[in-house]
Each structure stands twice: as C-alpha cells, then as structure tokens.
Amino acid sequence: MSLDPVQVMKGHDPIPNTCPSVSNGERKASWEDIKDIHENTKKPKSPKPENAVTIALSSRVLFRTEKEQKVFIQEGVEEYLRYQMEHENEPFAPGPAFPFVKALETVNARLRELYPDSEELFDIVLVTYNHAHVGVRLINTINYHNLFIERFCMTGGSSPIGYLKAWHTNLYLSADAEKVQEALAEGIAAATMFMPEKEVEVSETQLRVAFDGDAVLFSDESERIFKAHGLDKFFEHERENENTLLDHGPLKGFLELLGKLQKKFYAKGHRLDCPIRTYLVTARSAASSGIRALKTLRAWGLEIDEALFLAGAPKGPMLEKIRPHIYFDDQMFHVEGAREMGAFAAHVPYGIAQKHPHKKSANAGK
Fold it and tell me: For residue 357, what pLDDT is reported?
C-alpha cells in the first residue's frame, strides 16, 4: 500500500467560521448529539453523474490529516490502520478544500430552490488511497460537519486516476502532485491544493473561483514564447496574433460549466445576486497582451465576472481582496504568493512553466 507523501503546512489552524472548532478528535462531547441530528435530517437526492458537475476530492485536501500521515510514514501501514480505527469517532478538522465544498453546497441549495427537478448540480466524490477500514472515520467526519457527500472511492493504496472518468469527473483536487499530473494527462481538469499560511474568512453565500490565464484557461503557447525569447518578443507575438484565438488550457471546461450554472441563475433574474462569481487574475498587461485573452473568452462564449490584468505585479494582494474559495495557477511562484496572503491556492502542473520555474526577478508577461 502506498499513500501519497505528506505535505505538512506549518502552523495552520483549522479554517475559521466554517464548522465547530475541532482538531482531529480534541472535541468528542457533542459527537453523539451531532450524529443523531444528522441521521434525522432528510438529505437531498444525489444527481446522476452524467448530469452533474462532478468534483473529485482527496481526503487530504478536504480534511487535515497531517497527524495520521505522520503515523503512516513513521510506523507503517498496519499501525496507521490501527490508529485510524481506534480514533474513528474523532472527526478530522477542515482542510483547504472544505470552504470550497461548503460553497458548492450553498450553490446547490439555491439551484434546488429555482429548479427543483434539475440534476444540473455540483456533485462531490471523495477519492482516497485509504483502506475501507478508514472509511468509517471519514463518513463519521462528513456527518459531523454536515457535508453532503454520498459518493466514495477508497482504493486501498491503488491509484484512483482510473476511476475519475467513470465518475464523469470535471475537476480533481488532490495533495499529490503526481496524481494530479496523471489526471491532466488523461484530459481531466486537476490541481494540487494547498493550505493558506494565514486565516482569511471567505464568503458563505457566494462561490468565488479565480483563474490564471496562460496554461490554465488558455494553452501555454504565449508562455513558451516568453520563456524562449523574452518579454519584448512576447508582446510582439501577442500584437501580431491579437485576432488569433488562443487554444484551450486544462481548466477551460470547468469555467464553461461554471458559466452554464451561472446562466441558470441569470434566467431567473439573479444576475446581480448570482451565488457564483468568476475572476481572471493574470500577469498579462491589458494594453499589450490582454486584448487577445478577452477576445478568446468572448469567442468561446464565456463570461468572466472580473478580469484583473496586473502587468507583472504580485497577484497575492489582489487575491487577498477577492478571497476566492479556490485560485488556480500554473506557477508555484504565484501559488506561494497567494498562500502567503491567505488565499486557497491550487497548482495546475501544466505547460512550459513546469520546466522553467518562475524567478522572483523576472517580470513575466503572463
């Protein structure tokens, strides 16, 4: 059995204002009461996978499992399983994807109000390397936090990637960069998600999703020009190709699905108070290279609620103001900057930037 290596985030507390204060079992007194409430609460029906927007999550991005991963690494799989079963009535604390999932559930609630019979909803699948014995603790934790997650995939140490297409997965979030790369190679939108370095409250009424441009929504065509020939050649290339559409990147399809759900709210007169909001946060400059990005989105029939062209300025301060539930970028340099400002950031390991990491002294055009 092979679990993904732990990525311990230093000094992070559970995410505020999203659930009762727990930390891997420190609070047990209310466990039975909460379980009784959950069992007596009527749940909505799960949509068919082919009709839903399916989000597959690893247990390590949904919950905080650093302590358990340490047991696995230091003491082995048998002790790890024993530890999990001994603590199966102790809920895990929220991980970086927890607020994202809560926001998805908020959108679902609004959609069910407007379209009671529609199955065009977000559907969450928990995909984990864990043995089925650990499933009891995971289910108990999901019930404790009152999450609506009915679909599980516990692979007992085998790679879960083969199951993602069977689930009609539209987005896969994991703490394992290698598995994320495998998913991307299979044409599945995927990202490695990280815990922010400080606590920032996010909206409880509106899902906010922010995207980088090149190698995320778009291909890495322009980034390749920049890496090979520098900033001036990049600007020249963008001017010459202003009316040539960029090819799609790995997250284009997910933005399309968000847009499709947004239009369902617009059709009912809820454009101004839509519970989904999208952002383009790019280091492109508006005058010299931004117009090509906007023309591409328009040609695709996609709307971005807000577009921020930063012309090489740091993205972190802007993301601190947006407070997205998730921000996608192909460069770890920008992911780390976002985390420092408290953003829930996810790395998309795609494109030329993976071979030529961004340096702090560079003034990247993307």
Answer: 65
